[in-house]
């Protein structure tokens, strides 16, 4: 490894701002892999284990930024990022900022604007995994922002785990992250409601889950076909026609009501189906409900 210059290329020197569980795991990974790592945290004592491992602790965030051409920012939230960036304005010129703090696409784009105004390159990143998996294939980091900076630092970023670049738009990684996490939460809360239903009927939730898990093998192709339908506006009867599905939905709702299980989500789906059928699209499939979701503002 060679020390980089300020043209965006990577080297052996790196700074990590923020030493919570994830920031500490990131810094530890770089230290263990031979990078000259400078660390900073608002609570200075959190740097002690990393210093023992070979890192250098800076007294201020500005000193930490000045120490390395590549700066990884891993803080609690966007408010903390704003506060820290304000304190390092004089030190960021010529640096590459890689912000892996959770935040929205709009916040990522604002951070990029700030970085450019202060002479720095900006890469936004998000973390899909837990601290113990940093540095392994069991964690994923989507990135977006400056193509030049990303390409120059790709080998260094790969030290953190699986990585993917989503393009020049600084907000793209946040879009990917928010969508992936939202998909998981939507799936899991629905799963928990189903388990409540199974339990209410006196059946074993683990045994049911083993059986239900087998059906997931069919989901990738189904989701791909539904995404294609949404993109093209050509809605086939993917899960059967809405005319048939709406009748089934009545059974789903009444079943849940009979055992005291929440049916709010099912009622919402039924309402969408009824509206779509009333508009003359009862021959289309579930994916066509996309047309009734709130429009982009």
Give short descriptive properties of this protein.
2 domains, elongated, alpha/beta, single chain, 8-stranded mixed beta sheet, Rossmann fold, 48% helix, 11 helices, N-(1-d-carboxylethyl)-l-norvaline Dehydrogenase, domain 2, 297 residues
Please explain how this structure is put together.
The chain has 297 residues and is α/β, with parallel strands linked by helices. The chain has two domains: 157 residues, 3-Layer(aba) Sandwich (Rossmann fold); 89 residues, N-(1-d-carboxylethyl)-l-norvaline Dehydrogenase, domain 2 (Orthogonal Bundle), CATH 1.10.1040. It has an eight-stranded mixed beta sheet. Helix 1 links the parallel strand 1 and strand 2. Helix 10 runs antiparallel to helix 11. The longest helix has 29 residues. The protein is elongated and about 65 Å long. The two termini are 47 Å apart. The N terminus is likely disordered.
């Amino acid at each position: 490894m060679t020390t980089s210059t300020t043209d965006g290329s990577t080297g052996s020197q790196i700074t990590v701002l923020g030493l919570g569980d994830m920031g500490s795991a990131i810094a530890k990974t770089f230290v263990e892999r031979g990078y000259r790592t400078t660390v900073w945290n608002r609570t200075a004592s959190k740097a002690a284990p990393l210093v023992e491992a070979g890192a250098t602790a800076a007294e201020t965030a500005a000193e930490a930024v000045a120490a390395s051409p590549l700066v990884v920012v891993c803080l609690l939230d966007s408010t903390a990022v704003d506060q820290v960036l304000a304190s390092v304005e004089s030190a960021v010129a010529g640096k590459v900022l890689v912000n892996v703090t959770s935040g929205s696409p709009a916040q990522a784009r604002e951070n990029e604007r700030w970085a450019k105004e202060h002479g720095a390159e900006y890469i936004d990143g998000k973390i899909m995994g837990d601290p113990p998996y940093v540095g392994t294939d069991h964690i994923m980091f989507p990135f977006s922002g400056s193509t030049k900076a990303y390409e120059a630092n790709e080998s260094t970023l790969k030290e953190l785990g699986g990585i993917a670049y989503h393009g020049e738009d600084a907000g793209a990684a946040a879009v990917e992250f928010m969508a992936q996490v939202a998909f998981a939460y939507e799936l899991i809360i629905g799963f928990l409601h189903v388990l409540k239903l199974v339990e209410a009927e006196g059946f074993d939730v683990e045994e049911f889950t083993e059986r239900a898990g087998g059906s997931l093998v069919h989901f990738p192709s189904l989701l791909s076909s539904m995404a294609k339908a949404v993109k093209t506006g050509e809605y086939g009867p993917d899960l059967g026609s809405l005319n048939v599905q709406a009748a089934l939905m009545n059974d789903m709702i009444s079943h849940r009501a009979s055992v005291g299980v929440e049916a709010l989500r099912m009622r919402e789906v039924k309402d969408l189906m009824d509206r779509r059928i009333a508009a003359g699209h009862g021959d289309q499939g579930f994916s066509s409900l996309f047309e009734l979701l709130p429009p982009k503002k």
